[in-house]
Prior knowledge:
By secondary structure, the chain is mostly helical. It has helices at 5-30, 43-52, 61-72, 79-103, 130-138, 156-163, 169-184, 196-212, 217-235, 250-262, 267-280, 284-295; strands spanning 31-34, 37-40, 141-146, 149-154, 187-188, 191-192, 236-237, 240-241, 243-244, 247-248.
Amino acid sequence: xKFSTGYIILIFFLTSCINSExxxxxxxxxxxxxxxxxxxxxxxEKLEDYILxxxxxxxxxxxxxxxxxxxxxxxxDSLANDEGVALIVDYLxxxxxxxxxxxxxxxxxxxxxxxxxxHGGTKAVPDExxxxxxxxxxxxxxxxxxxxxxxLQTNPFYLQEQFYPYISDNxxxxxxxxxxxxxxxxxxxxxxxxxxxxxxxxxIWWEDFANATKxxxxxxxxxxQYKRYFTALTIGMDxxxxxxxxxxxxxxxxxxxYLKDFAPNSNSYKxxxxxxxxxxxxxxxxAKALVPGLLNE
Length: 297
């Protein structure tokens, strides 16, 4: 079969246009231009862009983010996977904050759904909440009751089922620790709700883990948790302040004594020692003056 020169030119032109369009689409989804240079997006960056476009007030957006993660990442131990799961964990926290009002009806009592995952399957879901609970559970949440209100909280079993095959050993340890703390609780009504021994043990656990995982994704997340607990150990919370009536509160005196015995060589104790000494000497204003420096180290 013979083709005219015009026909061949037309085919070449159409092929060029198609390839050009493909390249354009590829550049749009996989690359960005930074300082005049093309940057190929990593899978974590692609997931982050996808998550930014989701509606965090919609509980079902979590399952969409999870599906996108599995589309982008392979089941192998890698820092890239840890970065992706870290984004999912952060997004779960964001959705828990913004979607709660759209999930629960103020006129209904959801107490039967509280901690249902921690009863070994022996606690049945009431028929009236079956559909709702399925939505909550399939999007990585459980029901928590705090300050007289029902809220969403990350379900550690969801993270285990969906993401453990993808992450590093250290990130798995991180998620397991979060899960334990999730089940044990931490604060209620803006007050610390765990024994002082548990608070000190969490501070030291996160200090050690953050130090052991420096310069990694999980190390960065561990440091965030450490700062959270160290802050609580230093100044307390609104309804459990470290200083009451211009003197050290009994809970914190016990906590500091326990810290001295439990981890005297820890960085946490060394940082707090001058502050504790001033509190015990009832030099309250001088102790308060140290707080900004302690919390910003």
